[in-house]
Amino acid sequence: WKEDKWYWQKEATDWGFDWAPEEDKADHPKYVPTYRYARDIIGCMNNWVEGWIDWNMVLDTKGGPNHAKNWCIAPIIVNPDTDEIYYTPLYYVLSHFSKFIRPGATRIGWNMTESELVLTAFQNPDGSYVVVALNMSDKPIAYSLKIGDKNAAIEIAAQGLQTITI
């Protein structure tokens, strides 16, 4: 449960991976946990969801409590035997959104030509802007951020998650 490397590798599966018939296996591919987490949040926000909650925010080292007896991951893992708290990479992914996109923020439109970049953008009630970008590729991506008449050249690292505040 302390193997951060696992969160960045294409080894996780969803609930249908093991039992799906062969013709449906493509609907249940292996995935990189950090990418899926960030991509799910960005996708929801871009489709007018008003909030995003992880129902497994804190779990124990066995992925529970869990009535289905299937192992789950969470942003925070607690070892009840030692009272140790462990913040997984998912915690830090979630912080890109929760620390900067404030209650009452409005999702704003954006245009993008870079197909390998996934992003969402918000304007906070105080007038500040927040852009969260995900690069799942193996190469850094240079892009331009323009708001009104202001323009900034930005680069996101390969396999990076980036939050920009203005």
Number of strands: 9
Q: What structural class do helix, strand and pairing data support? A: alpha+beta
Shape summary: globular
What is the arithmetic mean of pLDDT?
A: 88
Helix content: 10-25%
Q: Which regions have little confidence, pLDDT < 50, spanning 5+ residues?
A: none
Radius of gyration: 18 Å
Query: End-to-end distance, in Å?
Result: 36 Å
Q: How many separate helices?
A: 2
Short description:
This protein starts with 32 loop residues before the first helix and ends with a strand. With 166 residues, the protein is of the alpha+beta class.
Structure write-up:
With 166 residues, this protein is an alpha+beta fold. The chain is built from two helices and nine strands, in the order αβββαββββββ. It has helices spanning 33-46, 89-98; strands at residues 58-60, 76-79, 84-87, 106-107, 117-123, 129-135, 141-147, 150-156, 160-165. A four-stranded antiparallel beta sheet has the order 4-5-6-9, with helices on one face. Strands 1-2-3 form a three-stranded mixed beta sheet. α1 runs parallel beside α2. The N and C termini lie far apart (36 Å). The model has no long low-confidence stretch (mean pLDDT 88).
List the helices and strands and how they pair.
Layout: H1 33-46, E1 58-60, E2 76-79, E3 84-87, H2 89-98, E4 106-107, E5 117-123, E6 129-135, E7 141-147, E8 150-156, E9 160-165
Parallel strand pairs: 1-2
Antiparallel strand pairs: 2-3, 4-5, 5-6, 6-9, 7-8
Helix pairs in contact: 1-2
